[in-house]
Amino acid sequence: MIQVAIRRLVQYGLKTYLFDKEDEVYITNKLLEFFKLDELGEWDELSDADKQLINSVEIKDLEAVLKDLLDYAAEIKIMEEDTITHRDLMDTKIMGLLTPRPSMVQANFAGLYKVSPESATDYYYELSQNTDYIRRYRIAKDVKWTAETDYGTLDITINLSKPEKDPKAIAAAKNAKQSGYPKCLLCRENEGYAGRMNHPARQNHRIIPVKINGSDWFLQYSPYVYYNEHCIVFNSEHIPMKVEKATFCKLLDFVEQFPHYFVGSNADLPIVGGSILSHDHFQGGHYEFAMTKAPVEETFQIPGFEDVVTGIVRWPMSVIRLAHQDKQRVIELADKILNAWRGYSDESAFIFAETDGEKHNTITPIARNRDGKFELDLVLRNNITTDEHPLGVYHPHAHLQHIKKENIGLIEVMGLAILPARLKSEMAELKDAILNGKNIREIESIEKHADWIDEILPKYQDINKDNIDDIIEKEIGIVFAQVLECAGVYKRTAEGKEAFRRFIKSLS
């Protein structure tokens, strides 16, 4: 089967344009060397069924082809241990043999960019999937649905694409030698890196250089693709996240170069920031989130910026939207708002810019090109904690943490819930318990959901096997909307709206 598997992988590479026909023998020999084989068997010696298997290989077959190759690698002991982590390290090394050199990828991208920015990103996104850097077959495992709420249609996903590590792999990672190379998962040094037990392999990873606001950055895609063409734009230097005037310049410069993409930055403080604060980066993509569709419900003018369309967005979090044909006007007003918010306090609304020397106020900015104007959404954030809310006052509160406990980062801010993998099995258990009249409080794995279910059940006259999936999905969507309301510094009440207006007036 190894002969068939090698031939199938070569055919896959040809069909997905990872290399040209002229490279077929070279790639085949690299694979033979990898698997410690001296020769490739004669084509005529293969059965008709095997020939059909080789010639008919498709994109969807890659997972099975790699499995055959990895099984053989485990059998001949060229894989140290047969674990998920070892398999991921090895199959990435295999795909790296098929992946074009960085210079070739960059040249292709640059050539296609002259046709259109969208042609360039289409090529690069397809390549990132075909090289298996984005593992299509794992992304397909994510559970996704939409939920209708008072704020529009929210996206919900249970993330299953990150592989679970087995105990052996966890122990090996713990005992592995600590390395400062690459410094983090975003550094440019990841391109082509072999990986180790505590750092993923990236031989099939290619990055695209981009110049934004006069500085050197890189473009890549997220291997986990939470939405269409989920990209990451990262600084060429390993420097910490910082939201400042230059951030707005870079975001708007990027969407000027790639007008079909949005791009945003996580906030630069813990709790309200992203998972990687140590490396300056943005996230973007080709997708329209619920927040993008949300209308401006109240417009206002800032003295000196009467020409900039400015308003409060109808959204559970506190969002100011700016729009103008001249990106410099948007940048100047955004900088004014950021500086004002950094130092703004309103004790009656529990907004404190600083306590005990710790700064709390920051912004999550999102940029896009829309209807001939540069548009910038500024989401006001605050990371203050209290004894009652030790994880954050403007963070999912305790009664919602059975569904979502993690930080509300850029992607969630825009209306896409990234929920933990545990929920898939917990929801299955919950449905079984509800349909069969079991006491949820007596089931340890789902007891945390008992209060929530007690609230849900009276809302529905009849819950049965035909409608329970829709009911649970709808109610999770409602919880996520409440999570976003918790993260909003100004609440959707008369008092909250009035407090928001006070901040706006302070800009005059």
Task: Name the structural class.
Answer: alpha+beta
Q: How many β-strand runs?
A: 15
- Mean of all residue-level pLDDT scores: 95
Give the number of helices.
17
Q: How much of the residues is beta strand, in percent?
A: 15-25%
Poorly predicted parts: none
**Rg computed from alpha carbons, rounded to a whole number of angstroms:** 25 Å
How would you sum up the major sheet? 10 strands, antiparallel
Calculate the terminal CA-CA distance, rounded to whole Å.
Answer: 74 Å
Largest sheet strand order: 3-4-5-7-6-13-14-10-9-8
Proportion of residues in helical segments: 25-40%
User: Looking at the structure, what is the overall shape?
Assistant: globular
| Multimerization state | single chain
Structural description of this entry:
This protein is 38% helix and 16% strand. The chain is built from 17 helices and 15 strands. The protein has a 10-stranded antiparallel β-sheet with strand order 3-4-5-7-6-13-14-10-9-8. A 3-stranded mixed β-sheet has the order 1-2-15. The longest helix is centred in the C-terminal third of the chain and has 20 residues, at 468-487.
SSE topology sketch:
Layout: H1 2-15, H2 24-34, H3 48-55, H4 62-75, H5 84-96, H6 102-115, H7 117-130, H8 136-139, E1 143-149, E2 152-158, H9 167-175, E3 208-212, E4 215-221, E5 231-235, H10 245-257, E6 262-264, E7 281-285, H11 290-293, E8 296-299, E9 309-313, E10 319-324, H12 327-342, E11 354-355, E12 358-359, E13 361-370, E14 373-382, H13 410-413, E15 416-419, H14 422-435, H15 450-456, H16 468-487, H17 494-506
Parallel strand pairs: 2-15
Antiparallel strand pairs: 1-2, 3-4, 4-5, 5-7, 6-7, 6-13, 8-9, 9-10, 10-14, 11-12, 13-14
